[in-house]
Write a structure and sequence with these properties.
The chain is of the alpha+beta class and 235 residues long. It contains four helices and ten strands. It has helices at 2-53, 69-75, 149-153, 194-198, and strands at 54-59, 62-67, 79-84, 91-95, 118-120, 132-136, 162-166, 171-183, 213-219, 225-233. The strands form two sheets. It has an eight-stranded mixed barrel. The protein has a two-stranded antiparallel sheet with strand order 1-2. Strand 9 and strand 10 (225-233) form a beta hairpin.
Length: 235
């Protein structure tokens, strides 16, 4: 009888342990499931936007995008531009909020999404006329939004990398001149890192003929660091 009770208790303990492990595993999978869900939602919104607002033309053998800003602004009046980086999947509307918090976790349609939007520093001028305009975007589960900035930082796209910014008034081209990693806790303003990247031989050289700076910022893989890209306005 005692042996049967011991066996029964052992089975209960084993089954209980298995149940707890399964439960813990299920809870551990929730963040991954959320990332997959919000990634899919972000992709759906992005595909819808591109289908509605972009017209592609081939001019002198070169593919160029025409952005319908009237449709974009009808979706969200906070739109200030559009960014595209050839040879990457970066091809997004740019918004500017009242602070740098809202669009961290809201998409272009102002709907909650942990991957947010590409957004301009709220202290910058909306027409990109500042000496340094800063854009933020997440590095997502599948390297969308600003995820492929890491390719620039790792040197996978070469040295002559253009960033194209479309606004209602004009289309501007920028040439990347610096790419580096910094700590997420670094409180130095992004436009004050010049001495750092100019003293590091592994980074791009600043080119004197470039004018205003465009700075892009995203999270690195371990999320404790940031990838910073600086590009100078051409022309």
């Amino acid at each position: 009888m005692k042996r049967k009770l011991k066996t029964k208790y052992k089975k209960l303990i084993i089954n209980g342990s298995i149940f707890v492990l399964v439960l813990l595993f299920g809870f551990s999978m929730i963040p991954i499931g959320q990332k997959i869900y919000y990634e899919k939602e972000a992709s759906k919104v992005q595909e819808m936007i591109i289908n509605q607002v972009i017209q592609t033309d081939v001019i002198e053998g070169e593919t160029k995008q025409q952005i319908d800003f009237s449709k974009l602004k009808a979706m969200n009046p906070d739109v200030v531009g559009w960014i595209e980086i050839p040879k990457t999947n970066i091809n997004y509307a740019i918004v500017k909020g009242q602070d740098n918090s809202f669009y961290l976790n809201h998409d272009l349609l102002r709907k909650y999404n942990i991957y947010g939007s590409v957004f301009m520093n709220y202290q910058n001028s909306s027409d990109f006329s500042d000496n340094n305009t800063i854009l933020f975007g997440h590095n997502t589960y599948k390297d969308t939004i600003f995820g492929e900035l890491i390719k620039i930082q790792e040197g996978k796209l070469g040295n002559d990398i253009k960033i194209i910014i479309h606004t209602e008034a004009s289309t501007m081209e920028y040439l990347v001149y610096a790419a580096y990693i910094t700590d997420e806790s670094d409180e130095t303003p992004l436009d004050k890192h010049q001495a750092y990247f100019e003293s590091n031989h592994s980074l791009f050289q600043k080119r004197e003929n470039l004018k205003q700076t465009l700075t892009l910022s995203t999270c690195y893989y371990d999320e404790t660091k940031r990838v910073i890209i600086h590009a100078g306005k051409m022309g």
